[in-house]
Design a protein that fits this description.
In chain A, 49% of the residues lie in helices and 9% in strands. Chain A has 91 residues and is mostly helical. Chain A has one domain. Chain B is of the alpha+beta class and 353 residues long. Chain B folds into three domains: 125 residues, Rossmann fold (3-Layer(aba) Sandwich), CATH 3.40.50; 129 residues, 2-Layer Sandwich (D-amino Acid Aminotransferase, Chain A, domain 1); 56 residues, Dna Ligase, domain 1. Chain B is built from eleven helices and 14 strands. A six-stranded antiparallel beta sheet of chain B has the order 13-12-9-10-11-14. In chain B, strands 3-2-1-4 form a four-stranded parallel beta sheet, with helices on one face. The longest helix of chain B has 15 residues. The chains are: A mainly alpha (91), B alpha+beta (353).
């Protein structure tokens, strides 16, 4: 990666992220696989953000704007959650 | 459609861990709101569907292995009493007999919509490998065996546990060890005979599709479901509707290739590799078919319309995310009803001539 390129988060495909139904309670349903999950408030925020951008810096900034956590913790949470999504969402 | 019609439905067994589809088909027909007299046809006096409120009357049939002439004779008796307009067979084991009898029943005035003998053969477990290869559909390696000694030495041939032990007509069991496989072999062979089929296990999630073929290669309607809970026999106890174009495409290719006529269920596994593997094609509605009425795509009602030449009801692709959860319940049966089925072979409500 060249230094001028912004780091991107490795997420499931846009199609996979767009197809899942996400309710405000944090209940997530995948209509293709029939799987359902629950996510906490941070997960809910991240899911919505992931649909808008994969830019890690922008995601960290968005999390910091809403939660009182350090940038390092926010980045770790984003990457961990992205990893969990890759594991669970069929592309 | 006008006037009351009389429809017979088979498969009235309702064992909690493995119910037959008949009672669910009856519920779908009732939900259609059509004016129907529904006759339940069972094989055992303890088949609950015979006594259920969904059926107006119940009759016992001889088992299919009694031969088609015996079955026809009994159906003709029931027809004389009930003036059947249509019959919907719901069990794998009886399908070959009903297929053989379809034109003769039609001659009596009893209509049905069934696959042909060739279609039935093309999707049976011993020919599925051939069909899937022709269509480019993934299918786990399957081998017919007649000797349970296979299970002790199969590792030498690259067969790893767990594997699936299947009857040639019905029944399947996952075996994790050779002893379990031998036990399953004996149990299934005792009921369904030889050969037994051994299939490589596909690790993943099971998805089912219930559909209706028009006999010209078209899929009239479909409901797709993922099993969310299963009984000890692997039968769906809870499920949720899904929508996956890949599963739908698989079903369409099968139905087009076979020019499938009538109801069917496609069982597929989505493996860890993300690919669908066809496991079985059942030539009838599944036991979970009531879900189709629950999601506004009433396939048994559509089948009846096709049989009778009526306009088809709307069959939209169902919304994903609708669950079913099966609930076993007790039917209360007066002794007189049980006595009537035991002694006369029909419930007291039967229109005996």
């Amino acid at each position: 990666m060249r230094s001028s390129e912004k780091p991107l988060v490795d997420l499931p495909s846009s199609a996979a992220l767009d197809r899942i139904a996400v309710s405000e309670s944090g209940f997530v349903f995948d209509p293709t696989t029939g799987d359902s999950y629950t996510v906490n408030a941070t997960g809910l925020v991240l899911l919505k953000l992931f649909r808008q951008t994969r830019d890690l810096e922008a995601l960290v900034a968005a999390v910091l704007a809403e939660h009182e956590v350090g940038a390092e913790r926010a980045e770790r949470d984003i990457l961990e959650f992205a990893g969990a999504l890759r594991q669970h969402l069929r592309t | 459609m006008s006037g009351l019609r009389t429809v017979a439905v088979t498969g009235m067994n309702g064992r909690a861990d493995n119910p037959a589809p008949g009672m669910a088909v009856v519920r779908c027909l009732r939900e259609s709101g059509l004016p129907l007299r529904i006759i339940g046809l069972g094989y055992d006096a303890l088949d609950p569907g015979l006594y259920s409120s969904g059926c107006d009357a119940g009759y016992l049939l001889p088992y299919p292995n009694a031969g088609k002439e015996t079955v026809l004779e009994r159906l003709a008796e029931i027809h004389a009493a009930e003036h059947l307009d249509a019959i919907i067979p719901c069990l794998d084991a009886e399908l070959p007999v009903f297929v053989e009898l379809e034109s003769r029943l039609f001659g009596l005035g009893v209509r049905s919509l069934l696959p042909t003998r060739e279609q039935l053969r093309a999707r049976d477990k011993s020919h599925l490998a051939e069909l899937t290869e022709r269509l480019g559909i993934r299918y786990p390696e399957t081998r017919p065996i007649s000797d349970s000694g296979f299970f002790a030495d199969c590792a030498k041939d690259g067969w790893e546990y767990p594997l699936v032990v299947k009857g040639s007509v019905y029944d399947a069991q996952v075996a994790k060890r050779p002893e379990e496989a031998v036990q399953a072999f004996r149990r299934i062979a005792a009921v369904w005979g030889l050969p037994i089929l051994v299939q490589r296990m596909v690790e993943g999630d099971e998805f089912n599709l219930a559909g209706l073929g028009d006999g010209a290669g078209g899929l009239i309607g479909a409901v797709m479901m993922k099993k969310r809970a299963v009984t000890d026999k692997g039968k769906a106890w809870a499920g949720v509707t899904i929508h996956d174009e890949r599963l739908l495409a698989l079903a369409r290719s099968v139905i087009a290739a076979l020019r499938w006529r009538g109801p069917l269920e496609i069982e597929a596994m989505c493996g860890r590799d993300g690919n669908y593997y066809l496991i079985e094609i059942n030539p009838r509605f599944p036991a979970w078919i009531y879900l189709s009425a629950g999601v506004g795509c009433n396939l048994p009602a559509a089948l009846l319309a096709m049989i009778m030449g009526d306009a088809l009801p709307a069959l939209p692709l169902p919304e994903a995310g609708i669950l079913f959860i099966r609930s076993a319940c007790e039917l209360i049966v007066p002794l007189a009803s049980f006595e009537s089925v035991m002694l006369a072979g029909h419930t007291p409500e039967a229109g005996v001539p």
